[in-house]
């Protein structure tokens, strides 16, 4: 089975690194799916988006990402996010509370929406 090296990195830390067979990410141009051998591409991640990675052993890794870039070569995918949270680490109640507050903080709302999408996709 063909595989590629994937790194999911946020400004403050590396969240996941390993071999994968599929990466899916939400970019400003739409959702993109990356498989081994994909043409090189550089994409801008949306604010409050998600990234899904299927590892070579079939594990599905899902993260909420807020801004950043996706860089693809024939053998590697690097996801550089401004901030990111693994789906299993997200506090769903806290994300829902941010949305319920009707806050004018559009960035906080986008992050919370992305976190809830990541939990749903996990």
Summarize the structure.
It contains 2 helices and 7 strands. The protein has helices at 92-100, 106-121; strands at residues 4-10, 14-27, 30-34, 41-44, 49-55, 60-72, 76-86. Strands 1-2-5-6-7 form a 5-stranded mixed barrel.
Structure, described:
With 122 residues, the protein is α+β, with helices and mostly antiparallel strands. It contains 2 helices and 7 strands, in the order E-E-E-E-E-E-E-H-H. The chain has helices spanning 92-100, 106-121, and strands at residues 4-10, 14-27, 30-34, 41-44, 49-55, 60-72, 76-86. Strands 1-2-5-6-7 form a 5-stranded mixed barrel. Strand 6 and strand 7 (76-86) form a beta hairpin. Helix 1 (92-100) packs antiparallel against helix 2 (106-121). The longest helix is centred in the last third of the chain and has 16 residues, at 106-121. The mean pLDDT is 94.
Spatial order of the strands in the main sheet? 1-2-5-6-7
* Unreliable stretches covering 5 or more consecutive residues: none
Radius of gyration: 14 Å
Order of helices and strands: EEEEEEEHH
Principal-axes geometry comes out as globular
Q: What average pLDDT do the residues reach? A: 94
Count of extended strands: 7
* Count of DSSP-assigned helices: 2
Helical content band: 10-25%
Largest sheet: 5 strands, mixed, barrel
């Amino acid at each position: 089975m063909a595989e590629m090296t994937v790194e999911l990195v946020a400004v403050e830390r590396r969240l996941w690194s390993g071999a994968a067979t599929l990466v899916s990410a939400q970019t400003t141009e739409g959702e993109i799916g990356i498989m081994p051998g994909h043409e090189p591409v550089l994409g801008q991640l949306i604010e409050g988006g998600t990234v899904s990675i299927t590892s070579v052993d079939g594990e599905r890794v899902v993260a909420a990402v807020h801004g950043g870039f996706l860089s693809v070569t024939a053998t590697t995918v690097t996801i550089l996010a401004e901030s990111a949270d693994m789906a299993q680490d997200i506090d769903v109640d806290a994300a829902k509370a941010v949305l319920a507050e009707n806050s004018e903080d559009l960035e906080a709302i986008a992050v919370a929406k992305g976190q809830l999408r990541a939990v749903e996709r996990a």
